[in-house]
Amino acid sequence: MAGAALRAAGRQLSQHSGAGAPILLRQMFEPKSCTYTYLLGDRDSREAILIDPVLETAPRDAQLVKELGLRLLYAVNTHCHADHITGSGLLRSLLPGCQSVISRLSGAQADLHIEDGQSIHFGRFVSCMLRELDAGSPRRWWPGLLGLKERGGWWPGLQSPEALEIRASPGHTPGCVTFVLNDHSMAFTGDALLIRGCGRTDFQQGCAKTLYHSVHEKIFTLPGDCLIYPAHDYRLTVSTVEEERTLNPRLTLSCEEFVKVMDNLNLPKPKQIDFAVPANMRCGVQTPPS
Questions:
Q1: Which pLDDT score is estimated for 16?
Q2: N or C, where is the chain less crowded by C-beta within 10 Å?
Q3: CB 116 within 8 A of CB 34
């Protein structure tokens, strides 16, 4: 079953990020904290989003955005990180127009705060829509608008853009979120779900029981061939929902067994936590280094 899921994952990745595909995806690595940063772009509109940028590699990310001819709308964070300083603040300086984004429940500062059930939209907008709408209508639309979706679907005349659905996945921290592409083909899980593992729960108001339910209810309910892109890993680069549902040694346990395992990891605290967390609480608003 795992082999079939892996083959499906390969097909999905080819369909969504290969040449000619509407979505451009780049996975980048920061070696000190073993953090993955993801660049998602719409090939038609050239609008893009960065997920979990790192301060030290923000210039690299900005350079890639420019080389690919993209316009970065948002630098988003899956949570308030303890092992590195976010690159959101520096990217706002390097790429004017970029806004920082983080969950409201993180307690961190940012240009935009997000919540469970909202979406971040980018790309493939119908350009004539602004002209078609009545000037006094509250239903205004512009590229990159966050969370503009009616309960019954997209407003008439609009083509559905690329979007990242926001799924609250607390437990590692109270403000963790998972970003899911709106066709449910890929999910960016932050530290909630790692490949064959998960984020620790022994600091930053973590809770093992909460994390267990978050993963099982918000991530494992996605299609089995949905690609899983974590914020960190030390061996592999991508997994699938089906692989983690069946092969993850922690999250295949019962909730009670999972809590016991997480309560007895006895890990050293992250080396950068004492200065990373205070800086990240000012996510994207801190004065970037000169």
A1: 52
A2: C
A3: no
Beta carbons within 8 Å of 130's beta carbon, 6+ residues apart: 140, 141, 142
What per-residue confidence (pLDDT) applies to 160? Answer: 53
What gap in Å lies between CA 78 and CA 187, rounded to an integer?
11
Edge-to-edge strands, sheet with 35-42: 23-30, 35-42, 47-51, 71-76, 99-103, 112-114
Instruction: Give the pLDDT confidence score for residue 7 in this predicted structure.
Output: 39
Reduced 3-state DSSP string for 25-41: EEEEEECCCCEEEEEEE
pLDDT at res. 235: 78
Q: Which two tokens stand for residue 287?
A: 């004065």
Does an H or E element contain 213, and which?
helix 208-214
Structure tokens at 55: 């301060």
Partners of 25 in the β-ladder: 40
In the numeric block, which tokens belong to residue 246? 């069946």
Q: What residues in the chain have per-residue pLDDT under 70?
A: 1-21, 124-161, 234, 284-290
DSSP letters spanning 118-157? -EEEES---TTHHHHS-TT-S----TT-BT--BTTBSPTT
Q: Is 128 exposed, middle or buried (0-12, 13-18, 19+ CB in 10 A)?
A: exposed
Which H helix or E strand runs over 17?
Answer: helix 2-17
Q: CA 169, CA 171: separation in Å to the nearest integer?
A: 7
**Residue 245 backbone zone (phi > 0: left; psi -120 to 50: alpha; other: beta):** alpha
